[in-house]
Amino acid sequence: KNEVEQSPQNLTAQEGEFITINCSYSVGISALHWLQQHPGGGIVSLFMLSSGKKKHGRLIATINIQEKHSSLHITASHPRDSAVYICAVFYSNYQLIWGAGTKLIIKP
Amino acid sequence: GAGVSQTPSNKVTEKGKYVELRCDPISGHTALYWYRQSLGQGPEFLIYFQGTGAADDSGLPNDRFFAVRPEGSVSTLKIQRTERGDSAVYLCASSFRPGPYYGYTFGSGTRLTVV
Fold it and tell me: Nearest-CA neighbor of A71 among A32, A107, A14?
């Protein structure tokens, strides 16, 4: 069993749809990253969460520390949101354990 | 600088050669991290610097890999006698301090191809 599991692995949706990506973890301390990686591009940190909920534009991230679960939501999805979304859990004060990523494709 | 800069962006080298990968973190960020991402996999931790010292190098796969950060800013990842299995994207990140309460900024990575 992977220590950080994301679902779904692949997601294709139509423009405008509400998107949810889930992350469950069995290790780590009380914080995680949601990151975005475009094909051939670098990694961009979207959120770092240790509790509750954060919102940035059309992106919303929630975390439940007790249940070791986090979700990333995208409202009014757009083709430019197409990317790989990665959940990474803090294993120590500096080391991240990464999920395998969710490949999101938004069709116009 | 405005972001984390990694050079070169792409490097193709022959098996057995020596390569150096450079990471220029955000000014003032004391913590610097190297990760390696092989095709189809998530990044794996290589080494973490706090200031000039390597606080944790447990992720370096073997003694062909070495990293330095002599002045506490720019870091260089050095790979000797490269092997085809070293082909990957090498990612660098920095943060003001280590820990989950400080934002990480990632570079665009160096894609290393060993032929």
Answer: A32
Q: Please report, for residues A29, A56, A67, B76, the alpha-carbon distance to residue A88 in angstroms, rounded to integers and kept in the order given.
A: 11, 18, 16, 24
Rounded alpha-carbon distances, angstroms, from residue B58 to A28, B47, B67, B95: 17, 7, 12, 19
Q: For residue A86, give how far its alpha carbon lies from the nearest alpha carbon of chain B (Å).
A: 8
DSSP letter for each residue of A28-76: --S-EEEEEE-TTS-EEEEEEESSEEEEETTEEEEEETTTTEEEEEESS
> Is residue A33 less than 8 Å (CB to CB) from chain B?
yes
Phi, psi (rounded to 5 degrees) for B65: -100, 135
- Residue ranges of A 55-84 with Cβ closer than 8 A to chain B: none
Note down pLDDT in tens along chain B; length 115 residues. Answer: 578 999 999 999 999 999 999 999 999 999 999 999 888 777 889 999 999 998 899 999 999 999 999 999 999 999 999 999 999 999 999 999 887 778 788 998 999 999 9
Residue A45 has its nearest CB partner, among B33, B48, B106, at: B106
